[in-house]
Amino acid sequence: MTQDITHYKKLLGEERTALEQKLNALGRRMLRNPDEWEATSPEVEHESERGDVAMNIERYNEREALTLELQTRYKEVADALERIHKNTYGLCTAFGKPHPIEKKRLDADPAGRTCIAHMRAS
C-alpha cells in the first residue's frame, strides 16, 4: 500500500495545486483562514448602463458559487493529505471499526473518506 499511498499523495498534491490556481483566479485567500477564499468582482472598464451593473452582479454570483464549490473540493483534498500525514489514509471509519477503502474507490476519488458500501449508504 506504500506505493499506492505515494501515488495518491502525488495525485492529491497536483489536484490541490490546480484548485489553488483556479481559486486564486476567482478570488483571494482569507487572511483569517488561508484555506478559505472569497470571490472578487470581475474586472470591468466602467459601468455606464444598468444592464452592465446587472451583468456584473450576475458574474460575481457565478464566481461566488464556483468559488464555494472549488473550496469544498479543496478542503476534501487537504483533509486527504492530512490523513496521509497521520497514517490514516485509505481507512473508512463510517459506522464503527476502521476498515480499508477499496482501491477502485480511491482510484475514482483519491480524497474519498468511505468505502463503496458506506458511500452508497449515505
Characterize the structure shown:
The protein is mainly alpha-helical. The chain has one domain. Helix content is 60%, strand content 8%. A two-stranded antiparallel ribbon has the order 1-2. Strand 3 and strand 4 (99-100) form a beta hairpin. Helix 1 runs antiparallel to helix 2. The two termini are 26 Å apart.
Quick structural overview:
With 122 residues, the chain is mainly α. The protein is 60% helix and 8% strand.
Can you tag this structure with a few keywords?
mainly alpha; single chain; two-stranded antiparallel sheet; 8% strand; 122 residues
Ordered list of secondary-structure elements with their pairings:
Layout: H1 2-26, E1 27-29, E2 37-39, H2 50-85, E3 91-92, E4 99-100, H3 103-108, H4 116-121
Antiparallel strand pairs: 1-2, 3-4
Helix pairs in contact: 1-2
Spatial gap, N to C terminus: 26 Å
Oligomer: single chain
Which stretches are low in confidence, meaning pLDDT under 50 for 5 or more residues running? none
Estimated helix fraction:
55-70%
General form:
elongated
Side-by-side strand order of the widest sheet: 1-2
Determine the number of helices (DSSP H or I, runs of at least 4 residues).
4
Main sheet overview: 2 strands, antiparallel
Question: What share of the residues does DSSP label as strand, in percent?
Answer: 5-15%
Q: Secondary-structure element order, as H and E?
A: HEEHEEHH
The radius of gyration is: 19 Å
Total strand segments: 4
Q: What is the residue-averaged pLDDT? A: 90
Number of domains: 1
Global structural class: mainly alpha
